[in-house]
Predict the 3D structure of the following.
Amino acid sequence: MSDNRNADSGETTTGHVWDDDLADYTNQPPRWWMIGLTASAIWVVVYFLMYPAIPIATSGTFTKGIGVPGTGQWTAVKEMEADMKDVDDVRGKFEKRLKDMAPAAILADKELSEYVSRSGKVLFSDNCAACHGQNGIGTTDKQGLFAPILNDDDWLYGGTIEQIFESIANGRQGMMMAHKTSLSAQEIDALASAVAQGNPTSTPLFTEKGCVACHGANGKGMQAMGSANLADKVWRFSGTPEGIKYTITHGVNDAGDKETRNAVMPNFSAAGKLSQSDIKKLAVYVFKFGGGKASDPAPAAN
Ligand code: HEC
Ligand code: HEC
């Protein structure tokens, strides 16, 4: 190796020489490199002054008023607060308007109705979807929640926007007593098979045993008490003869029967669970699933 050694270049060295041919020169680094280094050093000072650089528990270096005049006073929290304020300003405008409006008026107002579609989605996911399923598609009976599907046009308590608002604001709890002591097994069989065929009035038992009192003379139910329509073959709980027998035998929400079907829609006004504005938004949102009925409060029995 020592044969390939260059002749002394004449450059000055620091005097450190290793292994005879490895010397420590005192050359300047390239100019571009020095400019870069200097610029970075200046940038560090500028940045240090303008932004919170030394993390102190609640603020940065110069962000609490001790900054050099003209410094940025920027903090991530301030930036977020400014963004939030923008959002609140936009929302505040809508919230203020809908506060004094009836649900139907909100629905009719294009701008508000669109706003509600967006905020209602979050409210629904947070408060309702656990029972009614995302977008009101319902949950399976296996979960035992028996919360009705909300995106069809079959309503227990009525599908006008006012009735939907009522359901959410005050809760709903249908009541049908158990019939295990008042009816014989044969009578339950006969009633269940008539109901399963969507023709409950085909047996005289339907009138004789008082089913008409709640389900109406035609068996189509009454929205005022949420008694299901038994003539449409749309099933609240079960459409199999066994399932129907079960409903007749144990009733719905009958506190006296341990095996009763439980189906309780919570009251969302109670204890301020949701504000009136939020309930209105939800009524509009649910109505817009598409199953809502435009206008007139439906007659008690239809
Ligand atoms: C704990 C489960 C549960 C939660 C949470 C719940 N619901 Fe219900 N909801 C029910 C049940 C059960 C019924 C049916 C009550 C009955 O059968 O009497 C019902 C009924 C309704 C009805 C009436 C449907 C009809 O056919 O007339 C509407 C509307 C409704 N819920 C909307 C909502 C909205 C909106 C929310 C969220 C704010 C919500 N529900 C949260 C269980 C729930
Ligand atoms: C006190 C009122 C009342 C009486 C009386 C009554 N029901 Fe009901 N029934 C209801 C209500 C309310 C519901 C719906 C409960 C709910 O969905 O929360 C219901 C639901 C049902 C269902 C479930 C329907 C479905 O879609 O799954 C059947 C079946 C049924 N009733 C049959 C009968 C028969 C048969 C009789 C007569 C022996 C009868 N009911 C008497 C109030 C009554």
